[in-house]
Amino acid sequence: MNLNGWQAVACLAIAGGLGVAGAFVPNPTATVGLFNLASGIVAGTFALLQRSRDPHARTRSSDRTSTAAGGVPTYDRTPPPETPRRP
After folding, report:
1. Which of 42, 21, 39, 40 is closest to 30 using CA atoms?
2. Please, what sign has the CA dihedral across residues 13, 42, 49, 54?
3. Angle between helix 5-24 and 28-50 (nearest 10)
């Protein structure tokens, strides 16, 4: 299941409304229930949105790779070629 942008915004708006409503309910059991429902909706929305991320997004492991632009290593481990000496 995937969410469109407007569906995700609607889910988060409903969760926000439930959270605000929970703050004004005099019954503490209902308050906790509304807060739990709101947090579940937020968590579910972000879980569904996580699947539609860019598959080529940079990850932490690629951030640690020491490469310059274009995947060229920033340093070369091979020794430089020796220059011929003049007698």
Report:
1. 21
2. positive
3. 160
Q: What is the pTM of this model?
A: 0.54
44: Cβ contacts below 8 Å, ≥ 6 apart: 11
pLDDT digits (tens, 9 = 90+) for 32-45: 999 999 999 999 88
45 close to 3: Cβ distance less than 8 angstroms: yes
Of 86, 87, 4, nearest to 45 by C-alpha is 4
User: Which bin fits 53, alpha (ψ -120 to 50), beta or left (φ > 0)?
Assistant: beta
